[in-house]
């Protein structure tokens, strides 16, 4: 199982090559390297959308500066957007701009990136995580941001609590799992946020990061162990 994947976003090829080399030695790797390779670039969200999942509206750019930020605000008819790396994790390198605080003319992301409308629900109600083991829902987590922050990661003061999803919300998360173009994932985390329409949309389907919120999932250890045993037999 992937153990420490925390800085793969800054060493992508090295990380993927290492996984492939481990697999080539005959070691069973979870999640499988083909899944990890697919999941490392957030463009996979387009494929999930084509396959029936609802995603947060997103514009994709080879790079972005002030002009792309302004144009995204116009297209999304909003005053605030979030600009993220296409290969990113932990909210690192992410920027949020408002019409009142635009980037200056020289600013660039300097890498492939994506722009989304800022979803106020992330601050107002939080982001939801649905943990799946072998495609079966294990447990939910509600992740909230610290006061004055919008990023829910603990690095930025975010905190988690237990979350038992409503049927309609769980169905949205299950639809994302069903849209995955693989059926051999050991574990997967579906992170979702509520759109202004009230419907949950996928922010990321995380199949790399091995952190599965054990504190909110009392049965997780047993479930995961059983699934791993099953693969080894
Ligand atoms: N469109 C958005 N609206 C509001 N908050 C967002 C939006 N996109 C990301 N965030 C915040 O930033 C965090 C990191 O973004 P995310 O897309 O999950 O990337 P990462 O792979 O870095 O975790 C999210 O957990 C959320 O708190
Ligand atoms: Mg995230």
UniProtKB/TrEMBL annotation:
It comes from the Bacteria. InterPro entries: ATP_grasp_subdomain_1, DcsG_Biosynth_Enzyme. Gene3D superfamilies: 3.40.50.20, ATP-grasp fold, A domain, ATP-grasp fold, B domain. Signal peptide: none annotated. One of its GO terms (molecular function) is ATP binding. This is Prokaryotic glutathione synthetase ATP-binding domain-containing protein. It comes from Qipengyuania vulgaris.
């Amino acid at each position: 199982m992937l153990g420490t994947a925390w800085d793969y976003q800054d060493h992508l090829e090295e990380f993927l090559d290492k996984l492939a080399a481990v697999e080539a030695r005959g070691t069973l790797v979870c999640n499988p390297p083909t899944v990890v390779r697919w999941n490392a670039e957030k463009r996979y969200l387009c494929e999930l959308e084509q396959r029936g999942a609802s995603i947060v509206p997103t514009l994709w750019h080879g790079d972005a500066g002030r002009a792309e930020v302004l144009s995204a605000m116009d297209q999304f008819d909003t005053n605030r957007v979030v600009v993220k790396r296409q290969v990113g994790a932990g909210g690192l390198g992410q920027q949020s701009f408002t019409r009142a605080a635009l980037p200056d003319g020289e600013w660039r992301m300097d890498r492939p990136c994506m722009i989304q409308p800022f979803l106020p629900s992330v601050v107002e109600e939080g982001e939801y995580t649905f943990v799946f083991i072998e495609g079966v829902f294990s447990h939910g987590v509600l992740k909230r941001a610290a006061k004055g922050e919008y990023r829910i990661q603990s690095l930025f003061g975010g905190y988690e609590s237990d979350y038992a999803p409503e049927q309609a919300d769980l169905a949205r998360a299950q639809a994302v799992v069903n849209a995955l173009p693989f059926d051999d994932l050991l574990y997967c985390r579906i992170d979702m946020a509520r759109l202004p329409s009230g419907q949950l949309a996928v922010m990321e389907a995380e199949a790399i990061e091995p952190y599965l919120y054990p504190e909110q999932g009392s049965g997780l250890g047993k479930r995961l162990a059983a699934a791993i045993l099953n693969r080894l037999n």
